[in-house]
Design brief:
single chain, 309 residues, alpha/beta, Rossmann fold, six-stranded mixed β-sheet, five-stranded mixed β-sheet, 13 helices, globular, signal, transport, Bact_iron-sidero_bind, iron transport, Periplasmic binding protein
């Protein structure tokens, strides 16, 4: 009864057609739409949590906030935000006790929609994950969330701030001519012989282009159109004068391999000054993570340029 009455009330109050159109262009409601003044929001996705925070919207609860703070270091999540449990196995009783006005999920949460709709109106955002330009799509969703929750100005300012930070990083990178001219692999080590390498259609890949850098990885075969590929180290040989950047921390096995493996030593980036260690930045972030990525990469490339000149 409570859910049905609440849903009808929300639908009645949400009569502003312009706001409905703006929200529906970027998200699909799995039920009723929330009122634009809703403040009690729960989120079951870390990247959506970042988008909210960038627009000055603090959720009442999120999935595994401790893990979020560790992975999304550019974001300031207040200590009072409730831990809802795992991303795809949330604590439904706790969510019910929070009495949220709206629940935000991604398309990956389809199996949970029926259960979540019994608690509160549920909206599906996060379609930027599958976009060929995921950062641009994330900015569009940031604006939609800002409009939905009456934080339009804050959302627009977040994007403006990120654009300015990326422009500054691009200027810094432009002052490193010998380093900037080299194609760049962006990777995460899975083990001592395999990496996840990010292509042009990834969050990092789109930002590389905005920073004026050439992505060394174009994919192979079926992976050519993917955001990333999992491949062996010896496959990273397409660019003879490349630099390899990897996100830390680096495990002991991979660290040992760099010192002893003949395959590694034969790679074009294995010579001194050919690799960059970067602090962790999530591969599916929004404006805050994009700003951090641009900053740490520009600093790393500037430092590398000094070693080459």
């Amino acid at each position: 009864m409570r859910g049905g009455m609440k849903r009808r009330a929300l639908l009645t109050s949400f009569a502003a057609a312009s706001l409905m159109a703006a929200a529906s262009s970027c998200c699909a409601a799995a039920g009723a739409m929330p009122t634009p003044t809703s403040r009690r929001i729960v989120v079951l996705d870390w990247s959506l949590t970042e988008l909210l925070l960038s627009a000055g919207i603090v959720p009442a609860g999120v999935s595994n906030p401790q893990g979020f703070r560790k992975a999304y270091t550019a974001c300031d999540l207040p200590a009072g935000v409730v831990d809802l449990g795992l991303m795809f196995q949330p604590n439904l009783e706790l969510m019910l006790a929070l009495k949220p006005d709206v629940i935000l999920v991604t398309p990956a949460h389809t199996a949970l929609l029926a259960s979540l709709e019994r608690i509160a109106p549920t909206l599906t955002f996060g379609r930027f994950h599958g976009s060929p330009a995921p950062y641009s799509a994330a900015k569009t969703e940031t604006l939609a969330l800002g409009q939905l929750f009456r934080r339009e100005s804050a959302a627009a300012n977040a994007i403006k701030t990120a654009d300015a930070a990326i422009a500054r990083a691009r200027e810094s990178i432009a002052a490193t001519p010998s380093t900037r001219a080299r194609p760049l692999y962006l990777t995460r080590f899975i083990d001592e012989t395999h990496v996840r390498v990010y292509g042009p259609r990834s969050f990092y890949g789109e930002l590389l282009a905005q920073l004026g850098l050439d992505n060394a990885w174009r994919g192979r075969g079926a992976s050519a159109d993917s955001a990333y590929s999992t491949t062996s180290i010896e496959d990273l040989d397409a660019a003879p004068d490349s630099t390899l950047a990897y996100f830390g921390p680096l495990g002991p096995a991979a660290s040992s391999m760099m010192k002893t493996s003949p395959i590694w030593k034969a790679m074009p980036f294995a010579k001194p000054g050919g690799t960059l260690a970067l602090p962790g930045v999530p591969p599916d972030g929004g404006t805050l993570s994009a700003t951090r990525f641009a900053d740490v990469l520009a600093r790393a490339l500037t430092g590398l340029e000094r070693t080459r000149t």
